[in-house]
Design brief:
two-stranded antiparallel ribbon; single chain; 2 strands; 239 residues
C-alpha cells in the first residue's frame, strides 16, 4: 500500500498548489465572447487563451498530468520485466488515474464548473468542445481507474475487464486529433504536440491489447515505454 500513500500525498500536494482562481485574479477582467457563445474572461484587455496567466495555467495542468502518467509507468514496467520487487506498485495505475481524473474534473478549465462561472450543464453539455473534451477525459479516467482498482484487487476477475484500459487509451488518442485551441496564438505547435501524443496513445493502447496475447511481455514493454514517452512529453509541455 506504499503506492497508495504516495498517490494520496501527491494529490494533496498538487491540490494545495493549484489556484482556485486563475492567475492574475484581482485585475479588471475584460470579457470576450467566443464562437461557442461563452464569455471567456481576459486579463488587461487580452483573452485568457495565450495570455501569460492562461499559458501558465495550461502548462501547470499538463505538467501535473505528466507526473501522474510517470507514476503509472512505475507500476507498468513491473509486468513485462517481471520485477517482483515492485509488487507494491500494482495499484499505482488505478490510483494515478483516479487522481488525474479528479484533478481534471476540477481544474481542467478556469472558467468551467466547479471553479469557474459556467454551470454544470454549460460545462458538460455546452458547445465549447475544448471544455467538454477535458471533462470527458476526466470521467473516462475516473471510470477506468475504478475498474482497474477493482480488477487489480481481485474484485473483477473476468478477462474482458482488461479491455477498458487500452480502449480508453486508444479513444483518448483519437480525441486528441479533434482537440483544438483555435484562439491560442500557439495553436499550431499545440496541435503538433497533441497529434504526436495522440499517435503514441493509440499505439500504446494497441500494444496493451496485444499484451494479452502469447509472448505478451514484448507488447507490455512497448506499452510501458510509450506511456513513459507520453509522460515525459507532458512534463516538458510548453506553449
Amino acid at each position: 500500500m506504499a503506492g497508495l500513500g504516495m498517490i494520496l500525498s501527491l494529490t494533496i500536494l498538487l491540490s494545495d498548489s493549484v489556484p482556485a482562481q486563475p492567475p492574475g485574479h484581482g485585475r479588471e477582467p475584460v470579457h470576450h465572447q467566443n464562437a461557442s457563445g461563452h464569455d471567456h474572461a481576459g486579463v488587461a484587455g487580452s483573452g485568457w487563451e495565450g495570455s501569460p496567466e492562461g499559458k501558465a495555467y495550461s502548462e501547470f495542468n499538463h505538467h501535473t498530468a505528466g507526473v501522474f502518467v510517470l507514476l503509472i509507468v512505475l507500476g507498468e514496467f513491473r509486468y513485462p520485466l517481471a520485477l517482483t520487487a515492485l509488487a507494491c506498485t500494482r495499484l499505482l495505475l488505478p490510483m494515478a488515474m483516479l487522481g488525474s481524473g479528479g484533478f481534471l474534473l476540477i481544474w481542467s478549465d478556469h472558467e468551467a464548473w466547479p471553479i469557474g462561472s459556467l454551470s454544470f450543464v454549460q460545462t458538460f453539455f455546452g458547445t465549447d468542445g475544448e471544455i467538454v473534451q477535458h471533462k470527458l477525459y476526466a470521467v473516462l479516467f475516473l471510470a477506468v481507474g475504478l475498474i482497474e482498482l477493482l480488477r487489480r484487487t481481485g474484485r473483477l476477475a473476468q478477462a474482458w475487464w482488461r479491455i477498458p484500459l487500452p480502449a480508453v487509451a486508444i479513444l483518448g488518442g483519437l480525441m486528441l486529433f479533434l482537440h483544438s485551441h483555435g484562439a491560442h496564438p500557439a495553436a499550431h505547435s499545440i496541435a503538433i504536440h497533441h497529434t504526436l501524443m495522440g499517435i503514441m496513445a493509440i499505439t500504446a493502447g494497441s500494444c496493451k491489447l496485444a499484451s494479452e496475447l502469447p509472448d505478451r511481455s514484448r507488447w507490455g514493454l512497448a506499452w510501458a515505454c510509450l506511456i513513459l514517452l507520453i509522460g515525459v512529453q507532458l512534463l516538458f509541455y510548453s506553449e
